[in-house]
């Protein structure tokens, strides 16, 4: 008896990249004080009014099976939000509701890739990306970006990767996890040109679109000729602090929506109706509510900037969005893995090594700005001091 080979194919050979996080969780469970900057989850919980709406919907009887692409009224609300934020005409028929953003990523790739195909993605990358692509049976191929260019993807590199005859999709993420970078219009226009030339689908992970500190977020779906070949992933997790509620969506041309809806029929059977009603209530709170959820990360970005200003050992990648800062610590002579291990052992500060997010982030750290301001300020000051003490 053996497992299906597809499971080994999903896992790949690089591990899941979360070793530091698992160790940190065990240390905290054992009662140790660890300043945990590893995971992108809000330090505030889901708003009580949203939970009240969820409870009320459940008590009103919305506890049965859900079928199809989602509640019509929720799909319409998401479509209106997407159209208002992107300027691209969007109908409810372009929306399918999924059990979280990860399910949306999985469903989009399942609809667009098959065994023998190649799915491209930009590195550094969120650790599930490569496994999600491999879950379809396809091969996952990273397109490297460079720290010296603030990890902005280069059209020439994408064009080169897209020349593979089996390439079918390209996955991008802006605002970006792990780097905090927002892709510029120039970058996105170069990406759009490359995917049009190679006749690829573009899958755009935009779950951090409410966390923008400098400039503005531009959805590539809004660029000329891109709406018909772009699939956008969205989620309530980051915008409304609803990570555990598992409510995401896909924005796509109708044939893709229909394919993902068919996939849901044989996998998830949809999202519980009481959660969908809670999401509808949350979306109705408007942009001011979303700005309030994002504001702590704006503050902490400034805290990090001040704490690192005098460091000789750390170069911060300019963070324009998302709840992360990426730090280049190569001047210390340590790898990201070695630095993160020593920081945890000696300072009880937990960060993610850049190597967890792909080879281009080697020698870097990802810092999640997800603990209260005072603790975050302490962590950043101690991290900077630790790094400077390591200088040769």
UniProtKB/TrEMBL annotation:
Key word DNA damage present in the record?
no
Alphabetic keyword roster: Aminotransferase, Pyridoxal phosphate, Transferase
Q: What is its EC number?
A: 2.6.1.-
Query: Which reaction equations make up its catalytic activity?
Result: L-aspartate + 2-oxoglutarate = oxaloacetate + L-glutamate
The UniProt record lists the Aminotransferase class I/classII large domain at 33-383
One example GO MF annotation:
pyridoxal phosphate binding
Cofactors required: pyridoxal 5'-phosphate
Q: GO annotations under biological process? A: amino acid metabolic process
Q: Which domain of life is it from?
A: Bacteria
Q: Which residues form a coiled coil?
A: none
Indicate yes or no for the key word DNA-binding.
no
Q: Name one Pfam family in it.
A: Aminotran_1_2
| Homology family | Belongs to the class-I pyridoxal-phosphate-dependent aminotransferase family.
- Which PANTHER family does this UniProt record tie to the protein? ASPARTATE AMINOTRANSFERASE (PTHR46383)
Supply the name of the protein: Aminotransferase
This protein's species is Frigidibacter mobilis
